[in-house]
C-alpha cells in the first residue's frame, strides 16, 4: 500500500487598508502654536495653561486623598459631592435649581464633553450649525457622528451673530446649534438680545443647543455673562458645557456640568442616548 502525503495549503489574506475617518484633519492648532512658540522663544498665548504652580494646600489635599485610598474609578456621572457643589454654585450664580442626578455630569475634559454630547444626539444625516470661527473640535465631532456641519460666519469686526442667517439655516434636518460665549478665539460675548434672538430661532422647533461657556467667569468691561441658565425660554433646548478650570486656575482638573434638561426627553425616549461625559 502506497503511503499518501497530505499537503496543507495556507492562503494569505491581504491586509485591508483602513484610512482615517477624518483624512483632512491634522493636528490641533494648540500643537501648532505651542511648537512655534517653542521654536521662536515666544510667549505662548494659544493655550489656557497657567504659568504658576497650584496652591500648596491644594496639592496637599490631593495627595492626602490619594493616600487615603480615594484613587479608584469614580462613579460614571462623577462624585456626588462634586455634583452637589456644582448644583449649589449654579443656584448661587444663576438662581437656577438643577438636579444633581439628572442634569450634571462630570467629565475628564472640555473637548471630551463636547464630543460625547454631539455623539449622543447627532445622527446620520443630521445638520449642526456652527458659528465661524469656531473651536476646532466641533466639526470633527459632528462628522464622526455622520452629521453635516453648516457653518455661518460671524460678522466683523465685532464677531457678532447674524441671527437672520441662523434662522434661514434652520431646516428639517437641523439637530443642533453650537454656541460659544465668551467666544474663542475673538472674546466676543453674548448680550441679552442674543439670547432672545436665539430663543426666537428655537421657538417651535425641536433643535437642541450645545452651549460652550467655559470662559463664563472671564468677562470684563463691566459686562455680565449671558448664558443658557439665564433665560427660561431656552429650557427644553439647552445642553450647557461649563468649565471650572477657567476660574479656579487648576489646569486639567476640570469640573464640567451640563444643562441636561434639553436632553432629558431624549434620555427618556431614545435608547441610543448614552451617558454624557464632557
Compact overview of the structure:
The protein is 32% helix and 10% strand. It is an alpha/beta fold and 278 residues long.
Radius of gyration: 23 Å
Task: Output the strand order for the largest sheet.
Answer: 2-1-3-4-5
Average residue pLDDT: 80
Largest sheet: 5 strands, parallel
Give the percentage of residues in beta strands: 5-15%
Which regions are unreliable across 5 or more consecutive residues at pLDDT < 50?
A: 244-278
In DSSP terms, counting alpha (H) and pi (I) runs of 4 or more, how many helices? 9
Q: What is the N-to-C order of secondary-structure elements (H for helix, E for strand)?
A: HHHHEHEHEHEEHH
Q: What is the count of β-strands?
A: 5
Helix/strand class: alpha/beta
CATH fold label of the domain at 80-269: Aspartate Aminotransferase, domain 2
CATH C-level label of the domain at 80-269: Alpha Beta
Level-2 CATH architecture of the domain at 80-269:
3-Layer(aba) Sandwich
Any overview of this molecule?
By secondary structure, the protein is α/β, with parallel strands linked by helices. A 5-stranded parallel β-sheet has the order 2-1-3-4-5, sandwiched between helices. Residues 244-278 have low confidence and may be disordered. The chain is globular and about 55 Å long. The protein has helices spanning 29-39, 56-67, 80-94, 110-121, 138-144, 163-169, 192-202, 245-248, 261-269, and strands at 127-132, 148-153, 174-180, 208-212, 238-241. It contains 9 helices and 5 strands, in the order H-H-H-H-E-H-E-H-E-H-E-E-H-H.
Amino acid at each position: 500500500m502506497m503511503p499518501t502525503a497530505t499537503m496543507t495549503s495556507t492562503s494569505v489574506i491581504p491586509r485591508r487598508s483602513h484610512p482615517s475617518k477624518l483624512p483632512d484633519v491634522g493636528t490641533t492648532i494648540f500643537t501648532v502654536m505651542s511648537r512655534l512658540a517653542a521654536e521662536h522663544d515666544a510667549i505662548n498665548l494659544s493655550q489656557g495653561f497657567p504659568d504658576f504652580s497650584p496652591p500648596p494646600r491644594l496639592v496637599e489635599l490631593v495627595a492626602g486623598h490619594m493616600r487615603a485610598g480615594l484613587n479608584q474609578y469614580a462613579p460614571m456621572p462623577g462624585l456626588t459631592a462634586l455634583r452637589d457643589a456644582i448644583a449649589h454654585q449654579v443656584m448661587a450664580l444663576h438662581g437656577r435649581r438643577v438636579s444633581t442626578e439628572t442634569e450634571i455630569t462630570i467629565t475628564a475634559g472640555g473637548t471630551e464633553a463636547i464630543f460625547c454630547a454631539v455623539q449622543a444626539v447627532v445622527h446620520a444625516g443630521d445638520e449642526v450649525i456652527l458659528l465661524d470661527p469656531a473651536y476646532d473640535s466641533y466639526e470633527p465631532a459632528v462628522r464622526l457622528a455622520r452629521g453635516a456641519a453648516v457653518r455661518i460666519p460671524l460678522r466683523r469686526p465685532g464677531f457678532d451673530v447674524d441671527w437672520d442667517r441662523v434662522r434661514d439655516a434652520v431646516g428639517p434636518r437641523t439637530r443642533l446649534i453650537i454656541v460659544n460665549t465668551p467666544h474663542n478665539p475673538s472674546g466676543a460675548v453674548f448680550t441679552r438680545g442674543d439670547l432672545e434672538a436665539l430663543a426666537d430661532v428655537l421657538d417651535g422647533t425641536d433643535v437642541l443647543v450645545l452651549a460652550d461657556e467655559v470662559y463664563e467667569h472671564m468677562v470684563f468691561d463691566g459686562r455680565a455673562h449671558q448664558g443658557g441658565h439665564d433665560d427660561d425660554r431656552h429650557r427644553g433646548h439647552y445642553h450647557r458645557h461649563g468649565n471650572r478650570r477657567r476660574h479656579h486656575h487648576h489646569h486639567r482638573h476640570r469640573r464640567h456640568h451640563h444643562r441636561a434638561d434639553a436632553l432629558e426627553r431624549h434620555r427618556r425616549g431614545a435608547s441610543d442616548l448614552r451617558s454624557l461625559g464632557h
